[in-house]
Amino acid sequence: MKSNELISEIQWDRVPLVAGQNDARAWLGFQACRGLALNTLDAYGRNLERYLRFLSKCDKQPHAIGQETVGAYLRDLVKPSATPEEPVIRMANATIQQHLAALRMFYDFLVEEGRCTRNPYRQGVGRSSRSLVRREHKLPSIPTEEEWCRVLSEAAKEPIRNRLMLAMSYDAGLRREELCLLETRDIDPSRRTIRVRAETTKNRRARVLPYSVTTDELYGQYLEHRRTLSRERGRLFLSQSPRNRAEPVSIWTWSKIVNGIAKRAGAAGFTPHTLRHLCLTDLARADWDIHEIAIFAGHRSIETTMIYVHLSARDLAAKFNATMTQLHKQRLETMGRLFQ
C-alpha cells in the first residue's frame, strides 16, 4: 500500500485535535509515510488525541511543558479522574506503555524539527533508557473451552462473511489488519492457502499460511454471496450494508462485530486478537517447534513466540509429569524396601 493511500486511511474525524494541531498532524502523517500498519496508526492517533485533550484542559502546548505537566499526565494515565462527561476508564499496563511509546516518538519528532530542546518523556539514553511507568509482563488472555464454544455458537448466527472472517482469523492466526486487507488474489483454494502480503503485516514480512477444510467450505459459500455485491477483484471482505455496500470492511467494523459476538457469548475480554492468541497457543500445545510457530505467526523475535509456549504451559507440564513419574517410582521403591 502506498504512503499517500495510508495517509488517506487515517481516520482524521476520530482525532480532531490531532488533525487541527500542525505538529501533531505532521507527525502522524509522517508515521503513515513510514508504511506502518493501519492498526498502529490508529493507536498512535488515539494516544496523541488523548494527550492533546489533557493539555487543552491544562491550557498547555506540547512544545511548552515541564516535568510537572508530565507528572500530572502520568498520574492521569495510571489513575484517571472521573467526570460526569468522562467516566473512569483504567488502562492496562501494556496500553499505558504503548501510549508512552507514542509520546516519546512524538517528542523525538518535535526535537528534530526544532520545536523542543529535549524530550520530556524520554529518560536516559540508549539501553539505559527506562520507562516512566514500571512495565508489567502479563500473558495474553485466551478463552476457556466453555467460552470458546459459546463464542462459536453465537458466531454461527452471523452472516457467512463474518463466519468466514472468524474462521480464517483463527486458522491462520491473522492480525486484524492482515485479515481485513486480504484480497481475492491472496487466496489459493487449490492448495487451501492464504498469502499475507508484506505491506499488510506489522513487521513487513510476507508469509503463506494454510486454512482448514471447514474454512474452505465457508469460503466457497462466501464467494457466491460476494458476487451479489461485486464481481470486481480486490478486497475479499465487502460490506453489505446499504450505506457502504460493496465497500471494504474496515478493521473498526470487524472489531465491532467480534465485540458484539463476545458480548452475546458472555466472553469478557474476547477481541479480534484473541483469535490469534488462541491459534498460536494451540500450536504450542500441539508441540510445534518454537521456530515453526514464529514463522507461522510472522514474528521477528523468538521471545515474542515464547509467550505462547508459556501460555500453553507445555514445557512446565512436560517437566512436571517427568518429575512426578520419577518421584512416584522412588516412593514405590522405598515402600518396597521397607515393607519386605
TrEMBL record:
Residues 138-321 form the Tyr recombinase domain. Residues 18-111 form the Core-binding (CB) domain. One of its GO terms (molecular function) is DNA binding. This is Site-specific recombinase XerD. It comes from the Bacteria. InterPro entries: CB, DNA_brk_join_enz, Integrase-like_cat_sf, Integrase_catalytic, Integrase_recombinase_N, Integrase_SAM-like_N, Tyrosine_recombinase_XerCD. The keyword Transferase does not apply. GO terms for biological process: DNA integration; DNA recombination. Pfam families: Phage_int_SAM_1 (PF02899), Phage_integrase (PF00589). Keywords: DNA integration, DNA recombination, DNA-binding. Belongs to the 'phage' integrase family.
